[in-house]
Amino acid sequence: MEHSNPELRQEHRLLAEESIFLQVAASSEDGTESPAMVVSHSMDISASGLLMVVDQPLPIGSIYPACVVLKKPEGRFQLIAEVKWVRPEADQWRVGLALFESEDTDIEEWKEVIAVRCTP
Q1: Would the pLDDT of 5 be above 90?
Q2: pTM for this one?
């Protein structure tokens, strides 16, 4: 598994433990795929990315629909995220996600909320 440098983000990061839901495909015994959900939390967030912790690695380069639920201000954001890097840590995995500019997502609202949270 490839481990890239997680320190590549250009934007300010906020230490934040927010809920993240990734819609991934799960394979069944008959070889078919069905929707499955990975539920986790962030360690930090920025306007264009997230650092999250999961119980098992996710494939680098995979793209998933994501929902991020913020505590303050309260909000739910539908986003598209790509797995950029994966790093083992103890019995978990740290995963770096890049957020895509995409229609039918809340990326613009997300960026506005993050900009407000980054303002001292």
Answers
A1: no
A2: 0.82
